[in-house]
Amino acid sequence: MMAVMAARAAGILPLGFIGTVAGLSDPEGYRAMLRRSRKLGFACASCVHPSQVEVINAEYGDSAEAVAEARRMVAAFAESLAKGVGAVSFEGRMIDEPVVERARRLLARAR
User: Fold this and answer.
1) Which of 111, 36, 49 shows the shortest CA–CA distance to 16?
2) Using CA atoms, how far apart are residues 15 and 46, in angstroms rounded to an integer?
3) Is the CB of residue 45 less than 8 Å from the CB of residue 92?
4) Using one digit for the tens of pLDDT, what is the confidence trace for 20-78?
5) pLDDT confidence of residue 10
6) DSSP state of 24
7) Is the backbone of residue 33 left (phi > 0), alpha (psi -120 to 50) or beta?
8) Which residues contact 104 (CB under 8 A, 6 or more apart)?
9) In the beta sheet, which residues pair with residue 90?
10) The whole model's pTM is what?
11) Phi, psi (rounded to 5 degrees) for 71
């Protein structure tokens, strides 16, 4: 976790995951391991076999729904800033600059 935090602080995407790349016979176990690793802050991963590429892209990529939500969030926040408000309610939750910055980064990855 310290390596993930250090990478993030340095502006470097933390590459990796908590587990092994050797699970070629267990793609669902590999998927679960990548999902856990993403929740811990890892942003991308390498693989040892082409069959793992699709799983990595699915687990470390952003869904169309997440991209659409990020677009709506950034637009709603920009509208509130134009009105002089720095924290707003968005689709039932409070958002402010750090939350919107994560949405902006998601949109940058999606491009």
Assistant:
1) 36
2) 7
3) no
4) 876 678 888 999 999 999 999 999 888 888 988 999 999 988 889 999 999 999 999 99
5) 95
6) T
7) alpha
8) 70, 74
9) 93
10) 0.69
11) -60, -45
